[in-house]
Structure formats: structure tokens, C-alpha cells
Write a structure and sequence with these properties.
Helix content: 40-55%
CATH topology: Rossmann fold
Mean pLDDT: 95
Largest sheet: 7 strands, mixed
Shape: globular
Strand content: 15-25%
CATH superfamily: Vaccinia Virus protein VP39
Low-confidence stretches: none
Number of helices: 8
Order of helices and strands: HHHEHEHEHEHEHEE
Length: 222
């Protein structure tokens, strides 16, 4: 039966992914140009996929978010997706450690007409978050930065995201390493800790959405 398939042919899965991307997450000229510029400059191509961008956008919209914090801007691809879900007067603060990446993000924020909405800040995330936190509480927090600090980022989110708001973290599967008990490197251990705490903290209702490398999504329920 079609509704009771336990294994999916990789070719079929990829076809479904392309179908989803084309139908639900088409990129506009700015998003396409940004990806091309990242490649042209030789920057890491580690931004979210279009379907992940649409998911983040939908989640931000679903909770009526007006204030969003992101760590791990890279060149601003995910920030553009999320910022487009914000209402008039909304604001997205995104933090990037590498000045070259932040400069490109600012360039494309302007091209997207979002320079009054997206605030790109440069610095070490945990340090910048200390200052950012004074403007909270926030409606949503997206984590896509250095993996070893994921548990610390979760702590920040618990302290600065409002009840009913979202804490979201990319790479929750870490290439499948989290499911392999023999893998014990610091990054995998940190993501495991993040996932376990998100699953068990009584203030959160959480799940990992199995899209690409997994996005852990938590709602602040207390």
C-alpha cells in the first residue's frame, strides 16, 4: 500500500525533494544570486536548502514572530527567508563571526530590500548574545553556528525566547552521527546533548523535523 512504505528508493526520495522544492520553495532572483555569489567567492556552501528556508519562514510566520535572532549568518541566505515572514516593524538580528561573510550578507540584505529589517552583527556568538539579550524576549531563535556550543545556545534561548516562541537548531542529525553511539567527538556529543535536553526539558515541546540534516524545533510552552 502506498501509505505503508517502510523504505524509500533514494531516486524516488530525491524526485520528491525536487518536487517539493519547485512547488513550495521556489527561489527568487536574489536568493539564486546569493547562492551563486557564495560559490563565486569560494565561501563555504553550508547554508540551508530552499525547502529548509521555506520551513523556517513558515514556522516564523506560524507563531506570529516579529523579533527573531539567528546565529550563524554565513552570507544571509536563511536570514532572507525568515525576514520575509516578519510583519511591518519586525526585526531579525543575525550574528556572524567572519567579517567577509557578514559583508556579503549586508550586501544582499540591501538587494532584497530588507536593510531596515535585518541587522547583521559581527562577533563571537556567545559574546554578542549577551548584548542582544537585553532587547528580549524574542519570538524565535535559530541556531546554525559552531556545534560544540549548541547546549549553551539552548540555555540562551530558554532565557530569552517568550512563551509560545520557537527555538530551532539546524544539523540535529549531524550526518547521522548522533544515532551512532560509537561516534563520540565533541561536536557530535554537543548536538546529542542539545537534542536530549530539548526533548526532556519540561519548558519545551520539541521534535526533530527530518528535512535534510534535521532541524530540531522546540516551542516554549512554559
Amino acid at each position: 500500500m502506498r501509505g505503508d512504505v517502510h523504505t524509500v528508493d533514494p531516486k524516488v526520495f530525491e524526485a520528491c525533494l525536487e518536487y517539493t522544492r519547485a512547488l513550495f520553495a521556489p527561489e527568487d532572483d536574489v536568493l539564486r544570486a546569493l547562492r551563486e555569489e557564495i560559490r563565486r567567492r569560494g565561501f563555504p556552501e553550508i547554508y540551508v536548502s530552499p525547502e529548509e528556508g521555506r520551513l523556517l519562514q513558515m514556522l516564523v510566520c506560524a507563531v506570529g514572530a516579529a523579533t527573531v535572532v539567528e546565529i550563524g549568518t554565513l552570507a544571509g541566505y536563511s536570514a532572507l527567508w525568515m525576514a520575509r515572514a516578519l510583519p511591518p516593524g519586525g526585526r531579525l538580528i543575525t550574528i556572524e563571526k567572519e567579517p567577509r561573510y557578514a559583508a556579503l550578507a549586508r550586501e544582499f540584505v540591501r538587494k532584497a530590500g530588507l536593510d531596515g529589517i535585518v541587522d547583521v552583527r559581527v562577533g563571537v556568538a556567545l559574546e554578542v548574545l549577551e548584548d542582544v539579550g537585553r532587547a528580549g524576549p524574542f519570538d524565535a531563535f535559530f541556531i546554525d553556528a559552531d556545534k560544540v556550543n549548541y547546549p549553551k545556545y539552548l540555555e540562551w534561548g530558554l532565557a530569552h525566547v517568550r512563551r509560545g516562541g520557537l527555538i530551532m537548531a539546524d544539523n540535529a542529525y549531524w550526518g547521522g552521527a548522533v544515532a551512532n553511539p560509537e561516534v563520540r567527538d565533541p561536536e557530535t556529543a554537543a548536538i546529542r546533548e542539545y537534542n536530549e535536553r530539548a526533548a526532556r526539558d519540561p519548558r519545551l515541546t520539541s521534535i526533530v523535523i527530518p528535512i535534510r540534516d534535521g532541524i530540531a524545533v522546540s516551542v516554549m510552552t512554559r
